Amino acid sequence: MTTLVTPREVIDLAFADGGYLPPEAIGTVDIAAAEARYLLPVTGPALWQKLAEGEYPTLREEFAAPAAACAVRVAMQPALDLHRPAHCAPLTPFLCRGQRHPPAGP
After folding, report:
1. CA nearest 13: which of 66, 64, 75, 72?
2. d(CA 84, CA 91)
3. Would the pTM of this model clear 0.85, i.e. be above it?
4. What is the distance between the alpha carbons of residues 23 and 10, in angstroms, rounded to a whole number?
5. What gap in Å lies between CA 106 and CA 101, rounded to an integer?
């Protein structure tokens, strides 16, 4: 199954906000499902295939890979939250690498 990112890249790009998550917690099926849901509609199958084959490395590294990693996190976050102990504080919103905090206030 061809994906734009590996489990290690997903963790480095989208889960680097302090918690530990082993690479085996993210499967290629999770990555492929998130990419199909969130990236393919934007890129289209032709561009996605070229990115997956290694063409346009700058586009992949700077935009597509971080977007894919964040898509995996968005897709997996509800399942990951189910395993938090009850005494843990609620999670704060996360930022993937390269995102900026939204402006404060209305």
Report:
1. 66
2. 10
3. no
4. 8
5. 14
